[in-house]
Every structure is written in C-alpha cells, then in structure tokens.
Amino acid sequence: MNLLQRRLSAGLAIVMTVAMLAGCSGKSGGGSAESTMKAEPSAKASASPSSGQAAPSAKPFEGKTINLVTANHPWADAIKPLIPDFEAATGMKVNVQGYFEDQLTQKLTVQFTAGSETPDVFMYRPLQEGKLFFKNGWLQALDDYVNKDPAYDFADISKSAIGTATVDGKLAGIPIISEQEILYYRKDLLEAAGIPVPKTIDELVAAAKKLHDPGKEMYGFVARGQRSPLVTQVSSFLYSEGGDFMNGDKASINTPEALKAFTTYGTLLKDYGPPGVLNMSWPQAFGIFGQGKVAFLTDANSLYKNATDPSKSQVADKVGFAPFPAGAAGSKPYNITSWGLAINAKSVDKDAAWAFIQWATSKEIVLKTQEKGNPGARTSVWDNPQGTTGFPPELVAVIKESVKGGIDHDRPTVINVGEARDAVGEIVQKIITGETNVQPVADKANEALQAVIDKDKNK
Amino acid sequence: MPYNWFDRNLKWIYVLPAVAFVLVMMLFPILYTVRISFYEWSMSAITPPKWVGLDNYAALLKESRFWHAAGSTLYFTVVALAVEVVLGVAIALLLSREFRGKNLVKTVFLLPMVATPVAMGLVWLLIYEPTIGAANLMLKAIGLKPMLWLGSPAQAIPSLIIVDVWQWTPMISLIVMAGLATIPREPYEAADVDGAGRWKKFASITLPLLRPTILVAAMLRLIDVLKTFDIIYATTQGGPDLATETLNIYGYVLGFQYFKLGMASSLLVLFFALVMGLTLVMIWMRKRMEAQYD
C-alpha cells in the first residue's frame, strides 16, 4: 500500500471524526430566513367580509405577518382552525409551526441564542423554561400590555396561573393551559372488589395492593417512572405529606416528609406497578392503563383523553376520576399553568404579537378551545356551563375540587429546572430499583439541588 | 491573463468549494466549540459568557456521572461493534454464495439500514414494552421468562445493542461483500491442489485477504457507534437511572436540558479526543497488519 493511500485513509478518518462532531455542536445559525418572508398583502382576507367584531376600517394590522410556534398539543389543534377568523378581522397573517415538546425548547433556544426576530409568539412551559428564558432576556414582559384593553379582563385569569407565569415580579407570559394532578381509577374493578374510591394515600396503597395480581397481568398502580418526567407527578405526593422541593432557598428533598412521599410513590410503582416502570413517562403509563391492565393511575387531568378516548383506550367507559388522595397534610395536588404564550423580546412588531395573544386568550376564544377539552385559566369560562362541556361531568367536579387546595408549582422553581428535576428523580428511581437505605441518596440529591439553588442567586 | 491564471490554478479552484464547506461547516463549529468550552454560558442575551479557563474540564473529570457516561459509551461501542463485525462478516460470506432468491434476501436484509433511526427507536420501544410488547410475547410463546428490556438498568444497554446490531450489521456485510468480490481465485485453486479443507481455506486465504476491508468497515462503524444518539434518546433518554447515558446523551442533557453550554462543549471536546484517539489506534493497527503481509 503506497503512501498516498495511507494518507488518504488517515485523512478520511479525520474528516469523518470532524463531521461527527460538527453534527453534535451545530448550535449556531437558524431561522432568519423566515423573517425575510414578508406577507403578501392579504388579498384573501380583505376580499372576505370581516367577521363583525371589527369595523372594516379597523384592520390595524393590514399586511403584517407574525410567526407563531406551538407545541404539538391539543390546544394548538384547537386554535389553528380559528386563526383564519382572526386574520380576516385584523388583516394580519399568522404563520404557524408546530414541534414536539423537547424539539420546541431546543428550537426556541437556538433561535433566541442567535438573536432571531422570529418567532414573534410561541408556546412555552412557564415552570420548565420560564425563568431561564426570561432571565436570558428572551421574553418580552407583558405587564404594560394586559391592561390596555379593559374588555380583555385580565383579572379574570386565575391568580395562581398568573403566579406561575410571573418571574421577578414581571409577567413573562399569558397562561393558556392549566392542569392539576388527579387520580384515575377503574370503576369496574373497584366495584367488583367492593373497594370504595380511595380518599387518602394510605387507602390508595391498600387498594392497589388488593387489586394487584401480576399472575393475571393485572397491576395495582401506574405512574411515570422515568427520572425527569416523574418529578412533576411525585410533587402532589410530596405536598400532601407536608413537604416541598424547597423551603425558601433551602433544598428540602431529604426531609422526613419528602422521604415518606418519595418512598410511597416509589414503593407503589415497585411493588404494585407493571414491569418496566423505570422507563415510563406518561405515554407509556396511559398506554398500559388504557390496555386495561392497571387499576390506578395518577397524572395530570389535562391528559384525560388518553384514558377516555375509545381509539386510545380499551377501558374508555370504565374510567373514573377522583381528587388527589390526602396525605398527612391533606389533599394538595399541584395546580399549575403547564403552557403559556409569550412574545419574543426581539420581535419587530410586538403590538401585532400582543394582538394575537390578546385574541387567543380572550374569553371568547378560551371558551372555544376549552370546549375542545383544553383546560384554560379563565375563571369566567369555568363558571360558564358551556365552558365545561368539553369534559366529562365527573371530571369537572374533580377539577373544581382540585383547584381549591392546589399548589402553584409541580417542580423545583429554579432557573436550571432540568438539573433540579434530575436530582429529585434520582431518589425516586433508586427507591423503585429497590434501594432501601434512602437517606444517603436523598442527602446527596439534596446537596445537588442546593447547588442549583445557590447558583440562581448570582443571576 | 485571467484565462491562464485559471488554467494554472485549476486544481485549486476545483477543490475550493469542498475546502470552503469543510472550513465553514466543520472546522468553524469545532473551533467554536473549543472556544465555548473555556467559558461558562447559559446562552443568555444579558449575561455574557464568562471565562473560566479549564474549570469546565476539571469539573467534568471529577464527576462520577461523566466517567459513568464514558463507561457506558465504551460498553455499548465495544460490544455492539464486536457483534456487528462478526455477524456482518458471517452474513457477507453466506450471501456471497449462489442460491435461489439471493437478491430478494439481500434486499430484505438491507432494509433496517435505510429506516429512520428515531422511528425505529419508537418501534423498538413498543416491541420492548414488558407487558404488551412483541419481544416478551415471543419469549412467552417459546416458554421463556419475560424480561424487562429497557425497563431495567442492567438490561437496557444490551437491549439497545440488539437494536443497533439489527440496524447496522447490514452495513458491515455490504462493505465486506464488496471486499469478497475483489479476492482473486488463484489462491483457492492453489489451496485445492494442496488439499486444504474449507476451514483452512477460510482461515488462511479469505480472512487475511479480507482483513483490510473488515478493518475499514469496523472503523466506519466505530465512529458511528460511538456517536449513537438517536436510538438511545428515542427509547430511554439515558435512563433508567442513567444506565444508558452515553457521552453523547450527557452532552445533550448538559446543553439543552441544563443549559450549561460551556460544560457541554468541554464534554464534546473530550469526546472528540476519544473518537480521534480510537480512530488513530485503528489506523495504526491497520498499518501494522499491512506491514506484516507486505
């Protein structure tokens, strides 16, 4: 083999190595192309009669375009068919793009880091990314916008929802989806066994034990077991036992209350859960519940369709809903804003962006999206009988009950949520894998969480 | 005279686009990554990156999670690569024989390679579902005990190796089949005259002559296996309990879930060094082997 060939092969190896890492680190660049795509003056919109709520002369955003980025979420499916009305009334063009949750975060992060003017409006998770995005200067504070138009009735939006979307005393976004943790159960199984619906966590454990029959592929309880996803769902156990992730700026995931809550959750999954819970997030948990193999499930109410939609669930007509069972401190489920709408701080036309948010979170539109099963944050819509038609009546009662004692967060409220979640998740996963000496694990995780909290202070 | 100038420099002009591409799309990101690795940065538009020197590297090397990820990467890579090479060569030898329906078998066999990894990851996630998945149904049908697959820290990496082997063994076979086609007939004829058996012929002729090809195939695969991301992220996201967190996954977590861009970059630089090192070892092995047969 001659020298040239040898050099070539060495060169090839280097280039391939290089190409590999280029793939890993492609974090720069991104989407300015979209912003150059100015709206074609919307001949279509002006040709169609305006929808009545705005006078023909009042098309303040004629010829303007905004870019909206949504998650692949039922809310996005509900809002999309309504957007043409908005476009007709305002003369604005709304470009919509949808992404899965993780890709959404990644896409937004990349765009904002690159200083992109797009998207103008986007869905975000206030508790997951809200603090970081806001402190990085990526979100436009909305305090000056919300009271401009009295008809918008900002005070109608639930206080705890607004609390979730507030960072450093500023409003970072407008809540669109609220959710609480509830207990899903199988009516038929409980009835057959003569077990009443559990009202306390102890009753839940006893009932799960009784209905657990792995020989017949029937399991007592299922919930998320994946490290990071489980954190939000163990939170209600934690609050109901009287604990929390943090106490002021002190991490508190190694307290007796916290250990009791984590142990209960972990043991339920270890002893009465289906095999493989460690790799389950909500799709898998709902999946196996929908296959009729599990008696109890705790998760967010906003996901109820996965249990009651006959195309997804074989037990659609047998699912019951109950408020989160009470622990030592009563029933304290989380009651949070899981999704909000926010404006890019670099957006060129923030008034147009706000006009869209104002419309999308108006009483009228929230009613319409809520009718499609998206639990919103407006009190008046919940009080309106029409506003609850999108939910099974039993669930409406449970939601109204859950909102009362709810806690406004479902994960540690820090900037670096990802790292904090992993610290909490580790304790629970260790319990599920059979670790009995939990205190040292929890102490170590508590230190990790404390480090995350301490870092926040310098920001 | 421009014409002459072009004429004289034609060889440079032709490679210019490729060189420009490599500089802009490969070299620049790498150098930029190296630069960020000396900073602490959460991508903020308000707080600028803060110079921390080698702190990121020091912090990583002290972390047990980093070493665990490095271990998982090597475990996954070594086992997957070994199985794929052995299996790939065996299948290539089988497929190089003549039999009816050979082309059909070849086509079907190559299909996994063309499939989208993330989609395949999701399909395997369903197959591995312990209660309702196909894998356990099959185990039960032949009277074996069902397994936890991705749901157990101990079985998760072997389960992922199975997916990788299923998807990428065909690539090794494809390259080895090409290599087989170039082996001359004469040595076999000579061996026949000497009365060598099938095994002897394989061990003394086929394998030595194939060795360079196998090494190239293994090297290509090595780089790919080391950087495996898609199937792991689509199935376990590094879980359960960090069991499948490789360096690549940890890098993603640091970058896009913890927003520690500096740490993520320094991890990638270390990873780059690891890949480079292993690749150089392979090249050196190849050289030595060639020297032996020259």
Describe the structure.
The complex is a heterodimer of chains A (459) and B (294). With 459 residues, chain A is of the alpha/beta class. Chain A folds into two domains: 65-172 and 336-400, D-Maltodextrin-Binding Protein, domain 2 (3-Layer(aba) Sandwich), CATH 3.40.190; 179-334 and 409-457, Periplasmic binding protein-like II (D-Maltodextrin-Binding Protein, domain 2). Chain A contains 21 helices and twelve strands. Chain A has helices at residues 3-25, 32-36, 43-47, 74-79, 83-90, 101-113, 126-135, 143-146, 159-164, 187-193, 201-211, 230-240, 256-272, 282-290, 305-308, 350-360, 363-371, 379-383, 393-405, 417-432, 438-457, and strands at 65-71, 93-99, 121-124, 166-167, 170-171, 174-186, 219-222, 246-247, 250-251, 294-300, 319-323, 335-343. In chain A, the strands form three sheets. In chain A, strands 1, 2, 3, 6, 7, 10, 11 and 12 form an eight-stranded mixed beta sheet that branches. In chain A, strands 4-5 form a two-stranded antiparallel sheet. A two-stranded antiparallel ribbon of chain A has the order 8-9. Residues 15-56 of chain A have low confidence and may be disordered. With 294 residues, chain B is an all-alpha fold. Chain B has a single domain, classed as Orthogonal Bundle (MetI-like fold), CATH 1.10.3720. Helices cover 76% and strands 1% of the residues of chain B. Chain B has 13 helices and two strands, in the order ααββααααααααααα. Chain B has helices at 2-8, 10-36, 55-62, 64-95, 102-114, 117-128, 134-141, 153-181, 186-194, 198-226, 230-235, 247-257, 261-293, and strands spanning 39-40, 50-51. A two-stranded antiparallel sheet of chain B has the order 1-2. Chains A and B meet through α1, α6, α14 and α20 of A and α2, α10, α12 and α13 of B.
